[in-house]
Design goal:
6-stranded parallel β-sheet, alpha/beta, Oxidized Rhodanese, domain 1
Length: 112
């Protein structure tokens, strides 16, 4: 079963400085439209090549536009032995709908 988190709960955890790694798996073009604060970018197609870079000692929250791609990415990572991955239900759309902060990528961190 895939673990999921909603925008409100994630926002609360981040506001409480919970040690969570946010990973945006969208395309470069999508990322240019804004990201969650503190998120790192790892395009979905690179996950098989870069999954060893994901932390295993803390929760990793994956997100995409609507939550569908990140759900499948979580399933893939779980099949590969990652146990601490969580899907952001509703993706960045749900995050924005709740009025939570979106930042623009000039200061974006990228894996590697």
């Amino acid at each position: 079963m895939i673990s999921e988190i909603d925008s409100e709960t994630l926002h609360s955890r981040l506001s409480a400085d919970d040690d969570v790694q946010l990973v945006d798996i969208r395309t470069e073009a999508e990322v240019a439209q804004g990201v969650l604060p503190g998120a790192e970018h790892l395009p979905m197609h690179l996950i098989p090549l870069r999954m060893q870079d994901l932390p295993r000692d803390r929760p990793v929250v994956l997100y995409c536009r609507s939550g569908a791609r990140s759900y499948h990415a979580c399933a893939y990572l779980m099949q590969q032995g990652h146990t601490n991955v969580i899907n952001l239900r509703g993706g960045i759309i749900a995050w924005a709908r709740h009025g939570f902060e979106i930042v623009y990528p000039e200061g974006r961190r990228q894996f590697g």
